[in-house]
UniProtKB/TrEMBL annotation:
This is Uncharacterized protein. It comes from Roseibaca calidilacus. It comes from the Bacteria.
Length: 181
């Protein structure tokens, strides 16, 4: 509906009033659009996935760092133990096992229970005697190496070998007496 203006002043007032109404309408439209955008949930799932993926990635990287740190520490401890074993007062030096094999076996022995370590000392002694009696000096030497690592694990825990087990020194003497080098 169109209103008429009676005079020039009224017309000026009328145009100002129309301008304010137009600005108010524009503000209301912008405000409505902002509110609509805030309440619109399209894309929310994508944002949730981004947040969850970032959290999962962060947790995974943190776990990997912890595992790496623990693995490095274990490796250093095994290396230190092997170094002290190879340069100990008894003068023991490994016969057949490579350094890599020594580290792997010692790590395996360190994971065993005290009962398993004690039982292993008797088992290793029996295997050594069996190989020695059959004349297989190479395998007998490997069992001496294994028994030394077993003893290292026992010593690290303050444990004694099984009563029936031979000492590494006894095994070495028998090995040399049989012609082993």
């Amino acid at each position: 509906m169109k209103m008429s203006c009676p005079d020039h002043v009224a017309a000026k007032h009328w145009h100002v009033h129309q301008g304010i109404a137009a600005m108010t309408l524009r503000k209301t439209t912008s405000y409505t659009r902002v509110l609509a955008a805030l309440h619109d949930e399209s894309g929310a799932v994508s944002v949730d996935w981004v947040v969850l993926s970032a959290a999962t990635l962060t947790l995974g990287m943190g776990a990997a760092t912890l595992v790496q740190t623990g693995t490095v520490s274990l490796g250093e401890a095994i290396n230190a133990t092997l170094s002290s074993t190879q340069s100990n007062d008894s003068g023991f030096s490994f016969y057949r096992l490579t350094e890599q094999q020594q580290q792997e076996m010692l790590a395996s022995y360190m994971d065993r229970t005290p009962e398993q370590l004690r039982e292993n000392s008797s088992y290793m002694s029996a295997q050594f005697l069996s190989r020695l009696e059959s004349g297989n000096l190479d395998e007998a030497a490997r069992w001496i190496d294994r028994r030394q690592l077993n003893q290292t694990a026992l010593d690290a825990r303050g444990l004694d070998a099984d009563e029936g087990a031979m000492t590494v020194a006894q095994m070495e003497q028998m090995f040399r007496d049989a012609g082993g080098t």
